[in-house]
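Appendix B. Raw example, untouched.
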Amino acid sequence: MAKLFVIAGHGAGDPGACGNGYAEAERVRALAQRIKDFGGGNVMLGDFNRNYYADNGISSLNISKDYKIIELHMDSGTTSAKGGHVIIKLGFDPDEYDNALANFIGGILPGRSKLIDGRSDLANPNRAAAKGYNYRLLECGFISNAGDVAIFNGKMDEIAKGILAAFGIGAGTYVPPSTPSTPVVQPSTPSFSGTKPTINFKYRVRTNEDGWLPEVVNLADYAGIPGHAITDIAIGVDQGSLWYQVHVKGGGWLPKVTGYNINDYNNGYAGNGQVIDAVRVYYNTPNDYANKYGYQKAQYRVSPVNRNYYSWQYDNETGNGQDGYAGAFGVAIDRFQLF
């Protein structure tokens, strides 16, 4: 079984190709994270905050030669151009991994007449060859083609698993999505029949530009200001209890908190003043409520700065754990909703 080192193309201020409401750098980072989610310890991610082309990152890379390198990109062209393919250094023969990867990507993102292309004009294949690394670049369809984008978003987990399989790495059991693939229409505020009481989630966020913004209850509004990155989040609930946690851009998950008090920096809100890129929430339904009406799920979503919302995420209604988190590592958020 191979070990895989995954580079997500562009980044560090370079969005890459853009089309159909998406940026290449953000999309391939979402895919890279899913590859890691399913591949576990057999996968190492390159730094999402870097642009490995612009900063010559491969030349300074110091990983075991046991690792096979894949660099993820999306192509751009006319709206009719479509399909994925594999790029290797010109003059090299494709190996078993290249062939397996080409067969897979050509099946799920068809359209290319040539599935493996030797190139001499790209820096990273040349840099990898000079270092003796086993490398290939994968073009995951055309971001300029609406059909390819729909396949990429709708089948991201399948693509991630197929890439792993090409390197002989089996995907683990189902892993909650790290990056929801497609924005969804905001649902109406939930209503309950009879006397079932509404559980009210209240929340507010802080940005560097605005400080703490006003409180929002359920879906009456959203917390945040488009274009202003969120640095801290406070969440409360009028029945039961909850915990929540934020992930700092370029860092990791901060400790879980359970309180709702913007003056309590230990347990009253989640954040440390740095830009947040992901959030997760778990709601503990009171036993008497659960026995009478069933378990309540906390449903929440975030939006990347100046972009459409990611899909809704929710916790596990049986009380056994968290199904996922909202956001994408390395991508700042500017709006948050919860009900």
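End of appendix B.
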